[in-house]
Amino acid sequence: MSETHVCTCSAQGANPYVPMSMVIERIVDETDDRTIKSFDLVFADEEEARQFQYTPGQFCELSIFGQGEAPFGIASSPTEEGFVRFTVKKAGVVTSKLHSLKPGDRIGMRGPLGNCFPLELMRGKDIVVIGGGFAFTTLRSLIVYLLESGERDAYGKIIVVYGARTPGLLMYQKDLEAWETRDDIEMWQTIDIQAPGWTRKVGFVPAVVGEVKPSAHNAIAVICGPPVMIRFTLPVMTELGFGKDQIYTSLENRMKCGIGKCGRCNVGNKYVCLDGPVFSMAELDELPPEY
Ligand SMILES: Cc1cc2nc3c(=O)[nH]c(=O)nc-3n(C[C@H](O)[C@H](O)[C@H](O)COP(=O)(O)OP(=O)(O)OC[C@H]3O[C@@H](n4cnc5c(N)ncnc54)[C@H](O)[C@@H]3O)c2cc1C
Ligand code: FES
């Protein structure tokens, strides 16, 4: 049985189905194909802004009036005050409408929802962050938090491996550049095949993890990315000595209510929206085999 982790983050007020009104303050194209945008949201209500407290790894349900609601991981860190960021890939009804909105437009937000990354377990340990593609959203939140919460000394080394198909598909370019210049984080960026002007790693994320060889000793790893990336990274981590209780991931099952009521997200006896979305590999092993 793996160690469990709890979050001390506050949920929103009286009726969890009623969204808070949020104003889009800023929209940033994260990738050169313009399919992924970050939305910085500010609260229309100051009291709701004051009460909203979250921890890296949590998510919210965003609603577009007349279109519907969908879950998104929080990409900002609690250390970044004054806005809440979501990075959204254009996929279907809700995300396409969201992509058509402009600064000043209003949307709804419910949350924060779900559990979070195991920050307490991470204290005193090295932290290995492995991300692929646009699943880097909550990993950004985690990294910014670890670096900027004023407790950098509470954690050991921070090693990040982040990959995308092409340089233009790596998100949060300004953050990546800033992290590369720091000596308290080890940053490895990789792309699938060589591109003009690219001077960093080339190769799939699992292969680069195998080259970087992060030590499993007193370490916790968080892996978020496409299922195929996770599938091929896990044997590399095992080879490096990481146990299943040292590796965490975040699931993106389909959800509806986000608060453990509708049963849309459950796997075995777990509600991904309540018990997750963050699980250790040891916890996932205990779920039904078809999962
Ligand atoms: C906890 C959690 C965190 C997430 N974080 C992010 C994030 O940070 N950024 C982001 O861009 N997306 C994230 N997602 C995925 C996001 O919720 C879906 O892309 C979104 O629901 C699509 O809504 P839509 O109305 O635009 O698409 P729809 O019109 O509902 O569907 C469009 C297509 O996408 C498929 N689809 C919809 N939802 C999912 C899903 N969960 N898994 C697989 N296929 C799906 C549909 O079957 C359909 O083919 C997250 C999901 C979860 C559960
Ligand atoms: S989404 Fe409704 S129970 Fe999880």
Amount of helix: 10-25%
Rg: 18 Å
Strand content: 25-35%
> How many beta-strand runs?
15
Query: Average pLDDT, to the nearest integer?
Result: 94
Order of helices and strands: EEHEEEHEHEHEHEEHEHEEEHEH
Total helical segments: 9
Strand line-up across the major sheet? 10-9-8-7-11-12-15
Low-confidence stretches: none
Spell out which ligands are present. flavin-adenine dinucleotide, FE2/S2 (inorganic) cluster
Shape: globular
Q: Between the first and last Cα atoms, what is the distance in angstroms?
A: 18 Å
The main sheet comes to: 7 strands, mixed
Structural class designation? alpha/beta
Question: Explain this structure to me?
Answer:
This protein is 24% helix and 29% strand. It has helices spanning 46-51, 93-100, 119-122, 137-148, 173-180, 205-212, 227-240, 272-275, 281-285; strands at residues 20-29, 36-43, 59-64, 68-73, 84-89, 106-113, 126-132, 158-164, 186-191, 201-202, 219-224, 247-250, 266-267, 270-271, 278-280. The strands form three sheets. Strands 10-9-8-7-11-12-15 form a seven-stranded mixed sheet, sandwiched between helices. Strands 4-3-6-1-2-5 form a six-stranded antiparallel sheet. The longest helix has 14 residues, at 227-240. The two termini are 18 Å apart. FE2/S2 (inorganic) cluster binds next to loops.
